[in-house]
């Protein structure tokens, strides 16, 4: 994920994340309802409940008025994912989560063009890197021929 993200209800219950990526390119990514509920809970606990216009990872203040002066950076997100995954017994970066989501979507028959749009890839060849369906023997044309 590039720059900032914001939750946008778009006038209804459907949630979108406004994602600012490389080159300040903005796209709106649909957000699953469960994820939206978790984000609402996070924003509420972080003291930003009800304010869906700001970034997802914002500055916060502690009970004494101290705290972060700047919003969390993409590099900080990467470090947090790495740290917490290490505590769970493995180490991954934030990009691995993105790659896993793309692979999972493709494995569950998501349209590759939609996944390309979802990831913000300019070229579909970049998205094809996550498409491992072609490497599964059962998906080979060999098994599609009727003998």
Number of helices: 5
Give me the secondary-structure category.
alpha+beta
Which word captures the global form? elongated
Bin the strand percentage: 5-15%
**Helical coverage, percent range:** 25-40%
Work out the radius of gyration: 19 Å
Q: What is the CA–CA distance across the termini?
A: 47 Å
Number of strands: 3
What's the overall average pLDDT, rounded?
80
User: Strands of the largest sheet, in order across it?
Assistant: 1-2-3
Spans of at least 5 consecutive residues whose pLDDT stays below 50 are none
Largest sheet: 3 strands, antiparallel
Order of helices and strands: EEEHHHHH
In short:
The protein is α+β, with helices and mostly antiparallel strands.
Give the SSE layout.
Blueprint: E1 5-8, E2 15-20, E3 26-31, H1 33-45, H2 74-87, H3 94-107, H4 112-119, H5 124-128
Structure explained in plain terms:
By secondary structure, this protein is an alpha+beta fold. 37% of the residues lie in helices and 11% in strands. The chain is built from five helices and three strands, in the order βββααααα. The protein has helices at residues 33-45, 74-87, 94-107, 112-119, 124-128; strands at residues 5-8, 15-20, 26-31. It is elongated, with a radius of gyration of 19 Å. The model has no long low-confidence stretch (mean pLDDT 80).
């Amino acid at each position: 994920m590039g720059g900032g993200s914001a939750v946008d209800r778009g006038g209804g219950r459907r949630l979108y994340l406004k994602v600012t990526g490389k080159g300040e390119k903005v796209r709106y990514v649909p957000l699953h309802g469960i994820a939206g509920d978790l984000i609402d809970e996070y924003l509420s606990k972080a003291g930003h409940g009800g304010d869906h216009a700001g970034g997802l990872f914002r500055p916060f203040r502690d009970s004494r008025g101290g705290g972060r002066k700047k919003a969390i950076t993409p590099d900080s997100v990467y470090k947090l994912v790495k740290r917490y995954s290490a505590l769970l017994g493995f180490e991954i970066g934030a990009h691995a989560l993105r790659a896993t989501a793309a692979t999972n979507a493709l494995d569950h028959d998501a349209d590759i063009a939609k996944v390309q749009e979802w990831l913000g890839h300019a070229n579909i060849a970049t998205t094809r890197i996550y498409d491992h369906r072609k490497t599964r023997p059962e998906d080979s044309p060999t098994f599609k021929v009727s003998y």
